[in-house]
Write the structure tokens for this entry.
Amino acid sequence: MVSISGYQITEQLYNGSRTLVYRAIREADQKPVVIKLLKNSHPDFNELLQFRNQYTIGKNLNYSGIIQTYSLENYQNGYALVMEDMQGVSLSEYMAGENITSLQNILSIAIQITDILHNLHQNRVIHKDIKPANILINPETKEIKLIDFSISSLLPKETQEIKNPNVLEGTLAYLSPEQTGRMNRGVDFRADFYALGVTLFELLTGELPFKSDDAVELVHCHIAQTPASINQPQSNSFLFKGKEIHEINKPHPDPLLNKERGQEIYPVINNIVMKLMAKNAEDRYQSALGLKHDLEKCLYQLKETGEIEDFEIALLDICDRFIIPERLYGREREVEQLLATFGRVSNGNRELMLVAGFSGIGKTAVINEVHKPIVKQRGYFIKGKFDQFNRNIPLDAFVQAFRSLIGQLLGESDAQLSSWKNKVLQALGDNAQVIIDVIPELEKIVGKQPSVSELSGTAAQNRFNLLFQKFIQVFTTKEHPLVVFLDDLQWADSASLKLMQLLMSESENGYLLLIGAYRDNEVFPAHPLILTLEEILKSEAIVNTITLTPLKQESLNQLVGDTLNCSGEIAQPLTQLIYQKTKGNPFFSTQFLKALYEDGLIKFDSPHSSQGGWICDISKVKALSLSDDVVEFMALQLQKLPESTQTILKLAACIGNQFDLKTASIVSQNSESQTALHLWKALQVGLILPTSQVYKFYLDNQTQDASLPKQVVNYKFLHDRVQQAAYLLIPEAQKQATHLSIGQSLLKQLSDEQKAERIFDIVNQLNLGQAAIKISQEKLNLARLNLQAGKKAKLSVAYQAAKSYLTIGINLLSKDAWQTDYELIYSLHYSGSEVAYLSGDFELAESLYAEALNHAQTSLDKAAIYRVQMTQYQLQGKNTEAIEIQRQSLQLLGWEMPTEPEVIQVSLNEEISTVEKFLEQHTVESILDFPPIQDSTIAEILRILQILFYTAWLSGQPYLAFLAIAKMTTLSLQHGNSDMSPFGYVGYGMISIAALKDYDTARRFGETAVQLCEQFDNADIRGMTNFLFAGDVHSWSRPIREADTYYDNAYKYSMEAGNWLTVSFMMMLSGSDRLTYGKNLNELYEIAKTSADFLYRIKSFDNLENFTASVLQPIRNLLGLTKTPFTFDDDNFSESKHVEKYSNNHFVLAWFYAVKIRHAYLFDNKAAYLDLIPRLKIIESAVKTHAKTPSSVFYVALMHLDLIENSEDETELQIHLQALLSLEEKLKVWAQACPENVLHKCLLIKAEKARLNGQKSEAIDLYEQAITKAQENEYIYEAALGNELAAKFYLGWNKEKVASGYMQEAYYCYARWGSSAKTDDLEKRYPQLLTAILQTKQNNLGLSETFSSCLDKSSIINQTFQTTRSSSNIDEALDLGSILKATQALSNEIQLEQLISKLMQVVMENAGAKKAALILLDENTSSLILKAVATTSKSIKLLDLPYQDSKDIPTTLINHVKRTQKIIVLDDATQDSDFIIDSYLIHQQPKSLLCMPILGQGKLIGLLYLENNLTIGAFTQNRVEISHLLCTQAAISLKNAQLYNKLENYSHTLEEQVEQRTQEVRLTLKELQQTQAQLIQNEKMSSLGQLVAGIAHEINNPISFIYGNLTPASEYTLDLIELINLYQNVYPESLPEIASKIEDIELEYLIDDLPKLLDSMQTGAVRIREIVLSLRSFSRLDESEIKPVDIHSGIDSTLLILQHKFHSNHKYPEIEVIKTYSELPDLNCYVSELNQVFLNIICNAIDALREKQENKPKITINTSLKDNNNILISIKDNGIGISKPALNKIFDPFFTTKPVGSGTGLGLSTSYSIVVEKHRGNLTCVSAPGEGTEFLIELPIKF
């Protein structure tokens, strides 16, 4: 129990999540009290605020129906609220105790509550949290009292800002619609009536009208769902999505009241409750007295008659408060248009909605109507407003909007917040700080983030734009559409307009609605907003415009009539007067009405008087001389406020449309308490609005400054016109001084951190008042502040704003500032010049360059200015001017840049020599250990040289570019590494290739440079380094396709750095390289189109034209999409125009001619050869380090060979031969450096040369080698070319059959490459060689025609089939075989799941689909179930859910096919069709769709859905027919599988029923299996033993004969040799015939070799006898009894038998057998059976080693003695190992892991039986997959 000084605690009444309530006695007067405490020992500000608010309001309410508040006392870190103790309980507790016994009880309670509300509202208090828990009832007296004013308001109306539903004030179940902040309505006293209606609903029914645990759903119910009748409480459709709701009449928790509910509640009671719960406050009761009257009438009738007769309610409900309705008048069409736009956005669109109109016309009110559908779609609505007095604050409205979004997200649960954090960080990566710098609140979600490198120029802008797109993409999803409302666009800064254009024109974000409101009378054709909108329209973005006009007099009359609660006829005179004054402006009209009421010209007369209700003195209104200008009119209203309030408002108007209390107190030089008190009157009359509840902290006049909160109290003006009116009250002569005073006050009072955060606010005020500054030091200080603001604006890429600040800063300084304040004025000029050119003001930039260069005091300072200037020139394409600036800059820093080509070459050679000297002493890789550079001058030179490289390269001066990077390299080697050094090193790799032909050194420099990048945090250099390595260095020593990794890195880092130039080059060169190495053309075409789109969006038009000519059009040409194979021309591109335009740009021409040369040869365009061959020089000079250069050399060499063959002129022939030799030499060098890229090219050229020289056999071999190498290195189209040339060779040799084979292979290769144009070409030129393919296609066509005649064409809808070309994809030529194979595969499956998987696989492979879904009919439920979804033929996901619940398929399309049973084919699902509104199609945007029914015997079995998201028209007629055939077979197979599945289920059920009875059978079966296994193995081993013994016997007899005769044979041979020797000694001179014979038989050799031969025979015979002995030993047929044996002999015998398996062959290496034997005693055992065990285990080991294909296979056998009683034998291999599931079964009979027919599964089972059961030993196995296997045999020596 707690202890509170001065109080004696008696009991605890309540223990909630946030508060504790105790009953106590006040010791001072023994008065019983209730004390409320905060539960949290460290309460937050809101908890303290609510306690203070409860006390402040409660202490001033002296009414019996309200619990009296005695005191607010400090308690620990919070408060103790002491209140009256009425001995009551909460109404919710009272209800739960079944104390409400009748309808009379409820009516009595309701009347008391109504009475309390009347008195509360009379005291101008809105409770805002009426609910049973806040209503106390004394159980004895039944007295009712109201408690808890913690969120109550003293304002006549509050504006509820949008918050996360989880943190809304009040209790969500009882919250009025307007309290959600999503109703476009203010919160007034009528919100209490809604909550009372919910309370009565609960009292009458025992349940709430809306129930949900989801806060968003509950909010939607309150604002959009009609509650069920009290007689029929129903759950609403929003909560129970799609489920059928039946009428219910649930019993009340109180059984007594439940009896009364045997009959329906009286309709009039229902009507009263429903009126209370009306969505719009105007439709509810308007007074508590009117409600009380109706309730009392009901109670009276019930008491008198026991019944309640129906009567018209609210007849006396007349409101005595002057309330102007907030509903929209005359805007129905505009609201409908806005809601329709949001509807499209919620389906995936990205749209801009502009709302134009005069100030006060009602733009914001119309826009706020979008709140309701946003809640339904769980979207986010955020808004920001541009300020007329703060136009220089960059991205001001965007920042406000996203701060609001962050605030909404912070109300999410921890899990949801963590999810948002992950999504944001995933999108932003390491660059999150860039967005945090603009939106600091983001750090509350993602935490502290690492700083990012500072970028300059367009890189910073590109990075910011990219990151902001990614950031906003996080919040624009189907689950959470985003609406961003930007108000007052006419005051938007340029950065905001640019960002708006980016989001609408270049972003790919869907689910985004950007709403912009602007005053169309304040913009003009050249206004920045109008220019921006024109650019957005050019991009074909969806832009809608609503132009609001003044209200018509009829609408205004309706507004006046509703306000005065009178008919339109009565209101008409006043309406006319108002219309004459306001011209139908809604804001002016409502303020005019309000002023008439406040001036007493509109009054409320008692309803019982003669006139009754609201009356207006028209004559006095006519007599008023009020201004027609709304600003002047509002100024008059402001002048009615106290002078102190006017003063604060005037200062606040200078601050902006929104302001905070602290700033207002600083500038007014009052305390915050005093300032809040002065503003209270303006709050009460509604001229300013609080944006949060923090203002309530100051309602207590006792508030002391010492207890001020840390939270910011924010206010905003009701309308811009009010702000302008307040500003108008400041005399013109005092405005500048006022602004200056405000700025100085802020500067003086704010901390350094606050100054940095609010630098724009401070500087804007001081700049507006700069004319009033007289002291030069103050001007100097303001110049520094403008520099600070300019730099911050630059970081936000708000270059216009930055330019304004920096220009003002410069103008504030005098000319002598270059001498007195050099650093300041230089910084202003440096930053000012950069933002000037970035904002397009080149004239200002040039003047600032000149001024700065004229006064710069150091070379470094001048160089820095030059660097900005050269960057500008580079971006402008002024490369010559840029190089001149770079030359001057480098000269300043001490390096003379040569200009003459000869001198450039000499300087380049000198730099190369320096590098080579370094390499004599060091390795390239040692660069990584260099220290950082220390010399700032050298660092600046490196930066300039890096820019110079690109400038020189793009201007066609490659040697100057090489000199720049060579100089970068030598400077880095001499002075250490900087972040620029990697660029120099990789550039030196280019020099090593282009000038030195040292490809290995180039690679090492490139790889080292890429590694070195990681030491520096410079994404820009990382991107450029990876790009240069990929495009210019890597592919000279490694396969081109491996460069894709570095291209991907270049893209990632350059996008991160915002370097669009590098991204552009990467897209171009990677596209070119991928075309060169032969990437699939269809895939490459999609990539190329994406790249072209990017180049277009960033407006890189020159690069786009180059890319189009050299990558995109060549791909289209190969795909057959250009006019002819010989040209890249089509409707959008002309070769001649391209060449003419870039005739002087060798860089662009080199790209173009490289592909023209290749394509000319591929398509045999001989007429173009002579024109194209000289173009090789352009390629070799302009792009000498590109991979396209070797490719071009190769094709030019082939052209020369072709021309040599057809040349008739000897001189011409020699020219071609000489040229060919030179080209061959180059290719030979390149092939040595990188055979993967070039060797097959060299071989093909040699083959062609051999063909020309008539060297047929050599040519045959070379063609084969070239084709093989091309295939090995995945150059598929050059493998195709090799086959094509080989075919031509054989054709010329009249070997047409052989030629046909090669040409068909060429055809297949081209087809796999994707080149339909090339397959067309082959068909036209070599039809005789492609007969097999063409015949197959004809057969296919015949099949299609036959099938088509059977296929009901009416069953195919929504399809315009693509015309099938004769050269259609080769896959179509194989359709017949594919169909037969596929149908056979389907027919062979009987298991349902396997059949489904097989069907999906077959369909994906044969139908050209990228995604497939199978939906089958469930016969039990007759519903369609999604059974499988496949994204590739290998990735198939089996499912089992209703298809309607899936987000993977278009349900609208499925429904249509299900009902019509017709095939639907959509060539382009993104275009207009009957199904375009399907959410799946909108979100996923697939290209081609096919959906067909699967019918069996005329009945629907299921549906097949196919899509292709890459290609339009993917499902040709041929494909549809194939799919239909497959579905026909599938229907049969599915039916069979379902029948089989039923049978299986039946069998399974039957097995379950007899499970208990079959246990014995199973045991018996197991024993039988073991017995069977034993018998089989015994028989097997017996047969084997007999076989082995028989073989041994049969071999033994002849070998014994041979062995026995070898000794005598040796002796006889020796005797004969001795005789011959003796004869030769006696008769040295032989007869001629004998001498000739001796020579013929080589007697001398025979005498020498014959003894050796006999010795070998002796050795062989011994070996055979040993084998026979081993065989006999292994079989041991004579040893069936136990006897002691040497176990090693049994192992050796087994190894000897298997020795042939250990030897190596062409498939497997030799198996090493390692034996480690210990000394062992003889073992008592069954010898032959143990030998079986050894044989089984060792054979398994051999199989395991063969299967793994181990490089060094080995089997290790160890024997040892264990405990002197047992022998342990280990047999171990390093094979594939055994999985854990298999390991548990290896000793089971008939278990095997070998293929069918390769094993019986009895070997190990029998071995286990022999060891364990027969020898009482132990057999275990230790194994793991990939780690080998070990069998351990433990045998007792004696048993």
About this structure: The radius of gyration is 47 Å.
